[in-house]
Amino acid sequence: MPTSPLRIPAINYKGLPFDAVTDFGKQTWESIRNDVRTACKDGTVCLKLERLYSVDLPASETATVSECGFVKISPAAGREIDRGAPLTIIGLGPCLGGTPGEGSPPETPPPDSPTPESPSPDGAPPDDSVSVSPPSIAPAP
Prior knowledge:
Strand content: 15-25%
Radius of gyration: 16 Å
Order of helices and strands: EHEHEEEE
Distance between the termini: 60 Å
C-alpha cells in the first residue's frame, strides 16, 4: 500500500451537479471518486472527499455553472497532499446534499427523500458522508 504523498488529480466536471440526491449528481460524484481512486493507485479512495456548496464564489468561476454544479477542487490539481487528507469538491450553492458554504443556508431534504445513511458502528460518519437534517414537521393545530 503506497504511503507517500499523492499528487491531486485533475478533476473537472465543470457545471455538472455532484449532489447526493439526484441520480445524475450521484453519477458525477462516483466519477470524482473514481478519479481519486485511480490517482491513489492502490484501489482505494485515499483522500477524504468533502462536498461544499457556496453562494460566495466569484462570478468568473461560476458564469457557466448552474446551482449544484461543480466549480473547482481545493487544494488545486497538481499539488501534493498526504493520503487521508481532505479534498474539497466545491460547487455553486445552495444545494441539497452537501455542506453549506459561507452565506449558504442549511439545507433540508424534501419530505419524500430517502433516509440518510447511518454512521459506522464506532459512531463516526463514513469518510465521504453527507449530513442532511430531516425536515421539522409542526403538529396540526
